[in-house]
Write a structure and sequence with these properties.
Helix content is 29%, strand content 15%. By secondary structure, the chain is an alpha/beta fold. It has one domain: TIM Barrel. Strands 2, 3, 4, 6, 7, 8 and 9 form a 7-stranded mixed beta sheet that branches. A two-stranded parallel sheet has the order 1-5. Helix 2 links the parallel strand 2 and strand 3. Helix 5 packs parallel to helix 6. The longest helix is centred in the middle third of the chain and has 19 residues. The chain is globular and about 50 Å long.
């Protein structure tokens, strides 16, 4: 309660339930399929009846120390999908993020240079994806199981390349958070159990607020709708 008040939240974040003993079977969302078989699933929502959503933060451009402090004190789990060209000037920031006392923070793959992957050859895509797998393993000690293609754009080559270097799943998003509004993929403009929420590492020069401003808004929306934030990797 004190942490929520300190950071300006309307209510304390709800505590996530225990993760499932057996992870749900995730399949590619209808309309997102390729012709390839046995490729990492592409999805926007995790199949679960639990009132949980998953927070993901993309790219790594803004390195706000207040974000680390806020998320640690509020104990909100999230997955950071990193692009090397933006994080390489301060790997230590993301190492501190990974070592935060708050449980449930993971570092995942968002390619080396954030290029439009369907416009690249298979070899170029593989370098972008597998190269970032190598960077994260070298810098942070663990090869990521999750990959998000830049802009959410991919083709069959993308998924084949990703699978070749250890990617197990390709989470996209059902909603996107900004400091001053939410954007929704679904027609009802609402959250649903298992929805993945996207946001970005951005500051005042890029949008109308700071990272803590964005977290404050998205958490007020999530909590007011009766949802808790859970760790994506516990379900995928």
């Amino acid at each position: 309660m004190l942490a929520a008040k300190k950071w300006g939240l309307a209510e304390p974040p709800l505590e996530a339930p225990a993760p499932p003993a057996v992870k749900p079977k995730i399949t590619t969302r209808k309309g997102f399929e390729t012709d390839g078989e046995d490729l990492p699933p592409v999805f926007t929502t995790v199949p679960t009846k639990q009132k949980v959503v998953f927070l993901t933060i993309d790219d790594g451009a803004e390195k706000d120390p207040q974000l680390l402090k806020m998320m640690n004190e509020l104990r909100i789990p999230y997955s950071a999908f990193l692009s090397d060209y933006l994080v390489k000037d301060d790997y230590d920031y993301f190492a501190r993020m990974q070592k935060s006392e708050a449980s449930g923070i993971s570092l995942q793959n968002h390619t080396l240079h954030h290029r439009y992957l369907p416009g690249l050859s298979y070899g170029e895509q593989k370098r972008e994806i597998c190269g970032m797998q190598d960077v994260i393993e070298k810098r942070f000690g663990k090869r990521p199981p999750l990959f998000r293609p830049p802009y959410g754009n991919y083709n069959e080559d993308t998924l084949v390349a990703a699978k070749s270097c250890g990617v197990k799943a390709v989470p996209l998003w059902a909603a996107e958070a900004f400091p001053d509004h939410m954007e929704w993929r679904e027609w009802d403009r609402d959250l649903h159990p298992g929805d993945i929420v996207l946001t970005h590492f951005r500051g005042k020069e890029d949008w109308k607020g700071t990272m803590p401003d964005m977290i404050r808004r998205v958490m007020n929306v999530i909590t007011s709708k009766g949802y808790a934030v859970a760790k994506l990797e516990d379900y995928v």
